[in-house]
Write a structure and sequence with these properties.
The protein is an alpha/beta fold and 302 residues long. The chain contains 11 helices and 8 strands. The protein has helices at 18-29, 47-57, 72-86, 109-137, 148-151, 158-178, 203-208, 215-222, 258-264, 266-270, 282-291, and strands at 9-12, 33-37, 62-65, 91-94, 140-145, 183-191, 231-235, 238-242. Strands 3-2-1-4-5-6-7-8 form an 8-stranded mixed beta sheet, sandwiched between helices. Strand 7 (231-235) and strand 8 (238-242) form a beta hairpin. Helix 1 (18-29) packs parallel to helix 2 (47-57). The chain is globular.
Length: 302
């Protein structure tokens, strides 16, 4: 088997089981040295230690970290331990997460905040802890774990969906800021049977959605030739891409009753013919000013 990540140093958060375990093992199979992070995973007999043992059995290298992703100081210590062991950090996989599902009307605000804290601020803390090191070495690969629940919505997951879409926004901006230092930032939207999905999906679907079928896609997002700003969907051995697009819309200018005109033209405004994938948020300004005759036209996608 070709090893795409030989001697790269990777951190995977929430790697004690499920997707995180599958990710860590797959990265190790491709030659990466692993920091297996899981909350309190440094305790004797922990799931994280078992994952590290599995990596060692494969002939790989791994250390265990039990830090909490919501604690920035602990994430700094985790990164420092990796650097002390191997001299650098090349790859960060922000995988740690929790579920607190309920319909929005019944959801406690504390559960909303907690999900945002773990998924969003957890990823922010870990990314901040590696960012300057990656800039200094002019190399970095960061993956945010998003979800179709954020991209497209899912009943009973307002907190989770909000967190997962926030990570897409974080990816979009960090990918732009990381270009000059070859820091590539992507999102992975997995469909997999893990401890977080028990009771959510039927048994036959759970059996088909092994986490191991997602992790090969992760390898493509963290290699030397990785893309940047990609949203990769993966599950059951299938891989797709999601795009945040902008339609051509309509220009209404100073017409009388613009509000009424918008109401009448909603179908045309959302028509997808000629839509574009914006290179940055500035493209909305360009498109709207171009239709007003105040900027160069924006080319359609594809």
């Amino acid at each position: 088997m070709k090893k795409y990540l030989q001697d790269r140093v990777a951190i995977v958060t929430g790697a004690g089981g499920g997707l995180g375990r599958a990710h860590a093992l797959e990265l190790a199979r491709h030659g990466a040295r692993l920091v297996v992070n899981d909350l309190k995973g440094d305790r004797e007999g922990s799931s994280a230690r078992k994952v590290a043992d599995e990596i060692h059995a494969l002939g790989g290298e791994a250390i265990v970290d039990g830090g909490d992703v919501t604690d920035y100081a602990q994430m700094e210590a985790m990164v420092a331990a990796a650097v002390a062991k191997w001299g650098r950090v090349d790859i960060l996989v922000n995988n740690a997460g929790i579920l607190r599902d309920k319909s929005f009307g019944k959801m406690a605000l504390d559960d909303f905040r907690l999900v945002l804290e773990v998924h969003v601020m957890g990823a922010v803390n870990c990314t901040k802890a590696v960012w300057e090191r990656m800039r200094a070495q002019n190399h970095g690969r960061i993956v945010m774990t998003t979800s179709s629940s954020g991209l497209y919505g899912n009943f009973g997951q307002a907190n989770y969906g909000a967190a997962k879409m926030a990570l897409v926004g974080l990816m979009q901006t960090l990918a732009l800021e990381g270009v000059k230092n070859d820091i590539r930032v992507n999102c992975l939207a997995p469909t997999a049977a893990t401890g977080m999905t028990q009771g959510v999906l039927p048994a036959d679907a759970l059996a088909a959605l092994a986490p191991e079928h997602v992790s090969p896609g992760l390898v493509a997002l963290v290699g030397d030739d990785a893309p940047t700003r990609m949203i990769l969907l993966a599950g059951a051995g299938s891989f797709e891409a999601a795009h945040l697009t902008m339609t051509r819309g309509v220009f209404l200018g100073d017409e009388a009753d613009v509000a009424g005109q918008v109401r009448e033209h909603l179908d045309q405004i959302r028509a997808r013919s000629g839509e574009v994938v914006p290179a940055a948020g500035w493209e909305q300004y360009r498109l709207e000013l171009a239709k007003a005759g105040l900027a160069e036209p924006v080319e359609a996608a594809g």
